[in-house]
Amino acid sequence: MKHTRYLILFLLLSATVLPSKAQIEEEFDSIADNVLFNREMNGSIIIHSNGWGLEYRIGQNITVTKKLMFEFNLLEMKDAKEIKSINPFFTNTRSYFYGKMNAVFMTRFGIGQQHTLNRKPYFGGVELRLFYFGGLSVAFSKPVYLEIIKIDPGSYRYITVTERYDPDSHFPDNIYGRASFTKGFDKLKPYPGIYLKGGLGIDFGTINQKPKTVEVGAALDIYAKEIPIMAFKEANQFFLTLYVSFGIGKRYN
Fold first, then answer.
1. DSSP 29
2. Does one domain contain both 14 and 60?
3. CA distance linking residue 204 with residue 117, whole number of Å
4. How far is CA 31 from CA 34, 35, 202, in A?
5. pTM (two decimals)
6. Are residues 119 and 209 in the same domain?
7. Are 14 and 106 in a shared domain?
8. Residue 196 included in any domain
9. Any idea what the CATH number is for the domain that residue 222 is in?
């Protein structure tokens, strides 16, 4: 009977203390989630009108509604005229893009600002931001190599050799397929330039310290020289793209 009284007393104390502790923790998390953190970093995957890419940003608050941000982008830049082809006269061939002379990759190093249009309510919702960036853009062209069908003069059999694509001697009937992606990196050619970018960002994360974002925007890359991509198309030095990105990040002090 004595032990039963102690058990009942313990259960009553637990029922009183545990909810209070849970309430305190919930209130603490709620307060922490509404702290204005001074710094932010995030990483994103970019899907743009001519390919895809990766992005990393880091920055800090200038005011309550304004952030100074630095960013780095690594992008693939395709041409709208690229059409995947395959040699129908041979088996086990590999697909390739007929007429493509160079694969192009772009790097961007920039600075910009984010302007918060609204603060996310305590009960959730979304935060909207306008942003604009600008800075240095450097493109790199990598020559395209293909497996070319030839006749071995000794055995008179078909063989394949790896050659840099030449529009004057490589045609759909003697191209077996694309060569290894790593072929040609020793012949990278840089093209320096600048870029401008702007758009609208949406933070829909439920935790203030861990933003989840979607951005839609446009970017313009301008280079000092034209960058040849396709053999049968005039080279371009201006690249205007539309994009959407998906990212996650961290806010901290």
1. H
2. no
3. 14
4. 5, 7, 23
5. 0.83
6. yes
7. no
8. yes
9. 2.40.160.20
> Which pLDDT belongs to residue 122?
64
In which residue are the tokens 């032990």 written? Answer: 3
Residue 253 in contact with residue 243, Cβ under 8 Å?
no
Where b means 16+ CB within 10 Å and e means fewer, 136-150 reads ebbbbbbbbbbbbbe
Tens-binned pLDDT, residue by residue, of the chain (253 aa): 545 554 454 444 454 444 444 443 444 444 445 567 899 999 999 999 999 999 999 999 999 899 999 999 999 999 998 999 999 999 899 999 999 999 999 999 999 999 999 987 766 689 999 999 999 999 999 999 999 999 998 888 999 999 999 999 999 999 999 999 999 999 999 999 999 999 999 999 888 889 999 999 999 999 999 999 999 899 999 999 999 999 999 999 9
Is residue 161 situated within a structural domain? no
Q: How many residues does the chain have?
A: 253
Is 170 inside any structural domain? no
> In the structure encoding, which two tokens stand for residue 7, read together?
């058990």
How many Å from the N-terminal Cα to the C-terminal Cα in the chain? 56
Do 82 and 191 lie in one domain? The reply is yes
Structure tokens at 24: 């305190």
CB-CB contact of 22 with 14 (8 Å): no
Q: Is 156 inside any structural domain?
A: no
Domain that includes residue 53, residue range:
40-88+96-144+180-252
Q: What sign has the CA pseudo-torsion 170, 239, 201, 250?
A: positive
What is the C-alpha to C-alpha distance for residues 12 and 166, in angstroms, rounded to an integer?
A: 85
